[in-house]
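seq:
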Amino acid sequence: MNKKSLAMKIGAVAFIALMILPVAAVSADVQASVWSDPSDWYATVEGVLASDYYSLYPYEEKSLKVGYSKFGELINSNDNVGLEYAGERDPFAAPPGPDLDPWGKLPKRVWINGWYIDIRYNHSSWGYRNVWAGALFADLSSYGGPWIRVDNDYWGTDYAEQYEWEEDFRDPGLELDADGDVIGTDLENGGRKTNGSVVTEDPVVLYDGPRRYVVQLKNKIYDYNEIADVKLHLVDVIFTIIFNKVKKEVIVLKDVKYNPQAKFDIAPIKLNVICPEWGADTAQEDDVFEVPYGMVVQFSNREEWDLGTDEVEPKYASYVHFYTQGVDNNVDTSVEGLSTVYN
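struct:
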């Protein structure tokens, strides 16, 4: 990605590639990636309610077990543990227990849990930029592994996706080292990808007591300019996992911390604001929102819940309903305000 050019509107984004340079040194053959991740990339924390000596907890005496990776995914690939409850359910690493799904419905390449970030800004020299990164554990073709950099240029002229805006998390890319530099020579798949660069720090355990566990995870997100061979540190994605071992409660605090930039690096960025009720054809020239110095950041959770109910041959489809207040407007009607057992 020599320049990341884009035209932006709230609700619609179009990317314009300014320059494409084929990289002849990269093999066009995609390798079947089977990563051997270091064991210290992952950890599992055991709940204690089933064994706690205090007898007056108002909960069933079954424990919750939490697995996580240093990248911010609630999956431990070593133990095949996600959010495992009493050895009976695990929505992120199903089925529960160390063994994989014997029916082949949920191979590890389809375990999805993690996050995705999209960053847009205007660099004073490089122009409009768009950087994305995500740690989802898997990409439907492979799982785990180090950070991988996706770039349409890596494919030369044989790849169907010739433009930057066509790049996708499911695309293969080149392996990055611990410092965020490209070291791969073959295109590979995996569960952690970016079109820029990412450096992941080691987990920091802030507290590990008899009934509570707190750990902090940090990923540093960089833009990368190929022509200048320069990385620019944009933001930090910081997760703080708080696990109450007896209340069977996991809280994940997710912070996106802006990294201050050097003088003149960041220029104003303009967004065309389109109201859905107006339609794109009715937008006026003054419907523009200008960010004088900063970035437009979108951050989201990405996960799949797989909760089987059939012990013979599990059916992993699950249904979730989010109960709303029902304030009777166009986005939250009173019909949606269903009663719950907590009323």
